[in-house]
Amino acid sequence: METLKRNLINLGKGFIVWFILLLLNTRSNEAAVNGIKILLDVILASMIISENRTGRRIALLTTALTILITILQMPSGVEIILLIGLSLFSLWLLKKFPDDRSLDDSPNYEDSTALIVNEDVVWKAKNVFNPFEYYTYSPDNGVCIRKGILRRSYSTIPTTTTRVEITQFIWQRIFGLCEVTFVSNFSGQKFGDKSMKNVRLKAAGELMRML
């Protein structure tokens, strides 16, 4: 029953995304071009709602470029050639950058309230204003900071020698956000330049209690 419910929800999401794409990148009196775009929109919509994060990002990039092509109002022949080339380029990106979920934290849980089954990660948060910046904590690995889209950086902060400090700017108080920094237990100095930005205050409190 849950699988059927999830499939119906995904179908609804896909239709909504497809309809929005249809409105954004089609024009009247261009039947041939619109036919190609309708088929392309179906593929893009399915990629956008998929669990493949790399595929979603490539689909969003492709969508932005198709909308740009539509706005520029090129001749139909040129537009078709560009769409075909863009589709081939997107396929190349999919082969070049495989699904990155193996490097990611297990999805489908909110901030820090859930424990991941079969993994040692017990806390997760993100930069609310940067969807490509994630933070995790596990007793074995400490705090891990992951940044970037296709090109990524990974940083690890040992929690056995540092403690957490939570600070809030005035504007962050409005949104219930904060910045988490790490201070050495021995010197009292900040641990490098690594910090977790725009984390929900509730999640930061959870991390502080865990440490």
What does this structure look like?
Helix content is 46%, strand content 25%. Strands 1-2-3-4 form a four-stranded antiparallel beta sheet. Strands 5-6-7 form a three-stranded antiparallel beta sheet. It has 211 residues and is an alpha+beta fold. It is elongated and about 70 Å long. Helix 2 (31-48) runs antiparallel to helix 3 (53-72) and helix 2 (31-48) runs parallel beside helix 4. Residues 101-118 have low confidence and may be disordered. The protein contains six helices and seven strands; from the N terminus they run ααααβββββαββα.
Topology (elements, then pairings):
Elements: H1 2-24, H2 31-48, H3 53-72, H4 76-96, E1 123-127, E2 130-138, E3 142-148, E4 152-157, E5 162-167, H5 170-175, E6 177-184, E7 190-200, H6 201-210
Antiparallel strand pairs: 1-2, 2-3, 3-4, 5-6, 6-7
Helix pairs in contact: 1-2, 2-3, 2-4, 3-4
